[in-house]
Amino acid sequence: MSKYGIAKEALEHAVSQGEGAGWDKNEMLLTIIVSAVNEYRGSAGKAAAREALVYELGELSGSIDTQLIRSR
Fold first, then answer.
1. Where are the domains of the chain?
2. Is residue 14 within 8 Å of 30, Cβ to Cβ?
3. Is 40 buried (19+), middle (13-18) or exposed (0-12) by CB count in 10 A?
């Protein structure tokens, strides 16, 4: 399974668990984003986290930029 498949399954599981606890999908996804950013910052550093986020925000096209992710 690809890393994207693993991430997708993890997201689906987290959203499902959250909805079961009374949280809506958007609240869960935002919580996942915040948590992932904090974890990535702790692992890769503030500069790398900021660079990735700024790039992704500038490229919001509805798809994951796998070229950027593979380059890391």
1. 3-71
2. no
3. middle
Joined tokens for residue 47: 């500069």
Tens-binned pLDDT, residue by residue, of the chain (72 aa): 899 899 999 999 999 999 999 999 999 999 999 999 999 999 999 999 999 998 888 777 666 656 655 555
Q: Would the pTM count as exceeding 0.85?
A: no
The angle subtended at Cα 50 by Cα 47 and Cα 52, nearest 5°, is: 110
| Number of C-beta neighbours around residue 15 at 10 A | 19
Residue carrying structure tokens 């606890």: 21
Sequence-ordered list of residues with C-beta below 8 angstroms from that of 51, at least 6 positions apart, any chain: none
Rounded Cα distance, 27 and 43, in Å? 24
